[in-house]
Structure to design on (337 residues):
């Protein structure tokens, strides 16, 4: 009788422990957004990620689910159709503003600076900042600088952008704020429509990474008069967002370290893609003009941070990275960012 009682009590105790413990499934699904779907470089890169992740914990068995519509991938992730999502940092900001603020205007001026940022995210000291509520950012994958695409090369300064139509994502209010501050007209768009609006002359300017050049046929919008200003406006990332309780403890940190080690490969893909652009489209911004652009973008960052779009802690860290690389820069003597 006592043995039976003890057995029943043990079962109840184990059941309570199971209810209180985080549930870690033996299989996870990642929604992967790639404009080219399962044929894209982003999706193919994630195949290698899956293989590497098998060594990070016994409860890891990942299946990839490709999406060509980022909005749908994000909504399916929210609805529990997958346990993680690879989406742009612009959309990932809703899950973690700290890491989402990496994709901020003018804050990462080169791929060398981007290398420093990805290394910083992999630092275990920053692990608490990777978690926000039930979500964890398991890494930021650089996919290239965002450049101004213009349908007329005469739009070669920010002053000349005044009054022009610029596509902005309707779900990212910070973009509309930026466009208004430079005196241009924001036109609502989405990942699936902004390229078409540019190609059909519904907008004069878009900001896009070169990886969008071929899939979205942006050369049609450039036509015979357009160009691409070779001056990074933002650095665009894919960010891997996890539902933390669906993965083993420590998985996110191992993922961030893995992604940091893959940065040379990512940069190789970016540079190969940029080389595929017809050289006639590149517009080079004179060095004499860059200081003025940096000043304008700095003012935009300060405004958007005060307005709550960017995380102040991340803005401070990004400034430290810039000033470590360029200690003589004018901003390094100022304390308002």
């Amino acid at each position: 009788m006592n043995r039976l009682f003890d057995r029943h009590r043990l079962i109840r105790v184990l059941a309570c422990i199971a209810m209180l413990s985080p549930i870690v499934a033996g299989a996870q699904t990642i929604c992967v957004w790639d404009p080219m779907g399962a044929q894209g470089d982003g999706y193919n890169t994630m195949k290698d990620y899956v293989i590497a992740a098998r060594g990070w914990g016994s409860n890891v068995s990942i299946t990839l689910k490709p999406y060509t519509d980022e909005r749908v991938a994000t909504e399916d992730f929210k609805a529990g159709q997958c346990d993680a999502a690879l989406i742009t940092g612009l959309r990932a900001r809703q899950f973690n503003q700290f890491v989402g603020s990496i994709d901020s205007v003018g804050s990462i001026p080169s791929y060398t600076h981007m290398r420093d940022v990805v290394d910083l995210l992999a630092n275990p000291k920053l692990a608490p900042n990777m978690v926000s509520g039930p979500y964890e950012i398991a890494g930021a994958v650089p996919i290239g600088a965002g450049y101004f695409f213009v349908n007329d090369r005469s739009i070669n300064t920010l002053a000349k952008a005044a009054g022009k139509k610029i596509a902005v994502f309707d779900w990212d209010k910070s973009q509309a704020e930026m466009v208004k501050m430079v005196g241009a007209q924001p036109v609502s768009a989405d990942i699936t429509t902004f390229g078409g609006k540019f190609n059909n002359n519904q907008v004069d300017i878009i900001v896009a990474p070169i990886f969008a050049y071929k899939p979205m046929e942006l050369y049609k919008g450039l036509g015979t008069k357009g160009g691409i200003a070779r001056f990074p406006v933002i650095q665009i990332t894919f960010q891997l967002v996890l539902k933390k309780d669906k993965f083993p403890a420590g998985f996110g940190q191992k993922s961030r370290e893995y992604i940091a080690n893959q940065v040379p490969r990512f940069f190789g893909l970016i540079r190969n893609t940029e080389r595929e652009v017809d050289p006639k489209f590149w517009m080079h911004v004179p060095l004499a003009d860059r200081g003025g652009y940096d000043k304008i973008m700095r003012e935009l960052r300060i405004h958007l941070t005060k307005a709550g779009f960017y995380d102040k802690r991340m803005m401070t860290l990004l400034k430290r990275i810039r000033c470590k690389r360029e200690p003589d820069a004018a901003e390094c003597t100022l304390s308002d960012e």
Q: What stands out?
A: The chain has 13 helices and ten strands. Confidence is low (pLDDT under 50) at residues 1-8, 10-25. The two ends are 71 Å apart (CA to CA).
